[in-house]
Amino acid sequence: MPLHAEGETGFYDPAAFTRPGVVRVPEDLPAPRIPLSLPVKVRRIREGAARTLLFCTAVSAVVAVFFIFLFLAMNGYPIFEQAGAWHFLAGDVWNPTGMTPSYGIFPLIAGTLLVTLGAMALAVPFGIAVAVFIAELAPPRVRAVVKPAVELLAGIPSVVYGFFGLIILTDWIRVSFDVASGETWLAGSILLGIMALPTIVSVSEDAISAVAQTYREGSLALGATHWQTIAGVVVPGALSGITAAIILGMGRAIGETMAVIMVTGNAGVLPDPLWNVLSPVRTLTGTLGIEMGEVAVGSSHYHALFGVAVVLLAITLGVNLLARQILARVGERHTATAACGVRRGRRNVAGPYAYAVAGTVALILLAAATGVLVAAVVAVLLLVAAYVRRRISPRTGQKIAFGLLYSAAGVVLFVLGVILFDIVYNGIPAISWEFLTAPPSNLGRAGGIGPAIVGTLYLVGGAILFALPVGIGAAIYLQEYIREGRITRIIRAGVDLLGGTPSIVFGLFGFAFLVLYLNLGVSLLAGQITLGLMVLPTIIRTTEEALRSVPGGIREGSLALGATPWQTIRRVVLPPAVPGILTGTILSIGRAAGETAPILFTAVVFSQRFLPTSVMEPVMALPYHLFILATSVPGARENQYGTALVLLTLVAAVYLVAIVVRNRCQQSIRW
């Protein structure tokens, strides 16, 4: 009997010679190997090459985070050595261009925190209220309108928010409060609060929807009202997710650049008194955006700005790591908390009162420590609200609470409507064929924005071509090739850290590494790579979720029929995941098209008559063109609104086309 008669693998199988009727071979003899056929060798080489390539794409996020840290630290370390770490962080004067330069960034840190806290004071109550409304109260038709409307807020480019704030919001503050300028801490907080709303609403709504329906039913069966169930069972059950939503919204506000540059006044001083919301402030991101373009490379000022970037990155990464830890524990905590709420039933009506008392104590301590009068006022209002709540019937309390939730949703929709109406109404008169195709003239006051439109498409297209294969490959490796373990955790941590990096930090990294170190110069290629790194985490996360949604039985069936892992992935797993991958591409295209900070120092110029003929040339881009028109070119109001409308329309059109393609893919898969 031939040695290979016992199987089809082509290898010597020792177990085959232990069965009855088979000639036994002494154990000390070497196991003969049958040569593999050429097709089998080719398949093995192909499998190994695919696995290696996918591993390289998976570690790209970790490598990117490492290089960002490395280049920021290399360029920022000299200022810590020259000025001293304590003086740099705690110094109260930022004047790097004075006769005696001073590099204290404490006013910048304080301005960042004050604007962020003001934004959270607006975004948190409205965001949680809208999330509860969408998840618990809104009928299906209303939910179909409110949820996409809130998500549309996230799709509006930050420079468009900044333009609206500069033209409308600051003027309203100046007139309403009778101050010399409306570019204040208050304007920055209002604008950042609006921008943080979609993050808080989306994550909170997911957390609230994840609370098991049986807990709601149990609470209602014990006689609690709908509002008592929401306040005593659902919200406590989703508290970890809501906390993570607040932290993520805070990270979004801290990392914003262009909007705060345009509306906060950019004065590097502490408000006097500290609670003066009508004082101008300057943030860490605003300082980087304003000064990096005019500083001499290698100077102390240059290194000080990179030191500012190091501090900003440390703050945002700390915030995002905290949110990541909280989200990891959501599943562990919400079940026990919600179950406890069901057991309490109607007696849980005192729970919000206890929360109000705890919040009051915390806010009073905050007021005593910082002298912020607003904290004490809010504390008193919370205590009064809790006291009044105990004196009214549950039905009356439910009517009041539901009225407030409906009002919050109405306010959010009203804000969205005002922004869109203002831009569309004032932008339509500027739209013409010449405006859409001609180059700018007279510093942008006349002519058109044709090169800016094409340049934006070039930047977005190149970024997606760079990020899409890398992101898909990384997601495939994480989901299909390795189990959960240390390597997986390291790679996912790198993806999360990359996703939480502020856009201005990507711009500084692109400037230091691509423009200077690799000598690419300010060019289309440098901008495309920088934007590609920025959208890479979005593509990885959404693709991984899409792959995870494919049933495991499909993989097992393909492997059982003799397909290799790579054949299974390519022909069986990826086709059903295409809609989810397109979702990640949609989000990435929308973000890349509307970002200004990453391309500020790497790719763009304000005015250019001709299109670039090489990837090594700079380009115009709509976000940067709008920023310069709004902040540096007086008398260009019509072209400002026209540019804002075109940018907003372009982003919306990209979303619409991608959604149509995704829906068709879903229909074909169902068929």
Automatic annotation (TrEMBL):
Q: Where are the transmembrane segments?
A: 53-74, 105-138, 150-173, 185-203, 302-323, 355-388, 400-428, 448-478, 490-514, 520-540, 642-661
Entry superkingdom: Archaea
Q: Which InterPro entries match?
A: MetI-like, MetI-like_sf, Phosphate_PstA, Phosphate_PstC
- Which membrane topology term applies here? Multi-pass membrane protein
Q: Which Pfam families match?
A: BPD_transp_1
Keyword Transmembrane: yes or no? yes
- Cellular localisation: Cell membrane
Residue ranges of the ABC transmembrane type-1 domain?
A: 109-323, 453-658
Q: What keywords is this UniProt entry annotated with?
A: Cell membrane, Membrane, Transmembrane, Transmembrane helix, Transport
**NCBIfam families listed in its UniProt record:** 3a0107s02c, phosphate_pstC
Similarity field: Belongs to the binding-protein-dependent transport system permease family. CysTW subfamily.
Would you tell me the protein name for this molecule?
Phosphate ABC transporter permease PstA
Task: Tell me what organism the protein belongs to.
Answer: Methanoculleus caldifontis
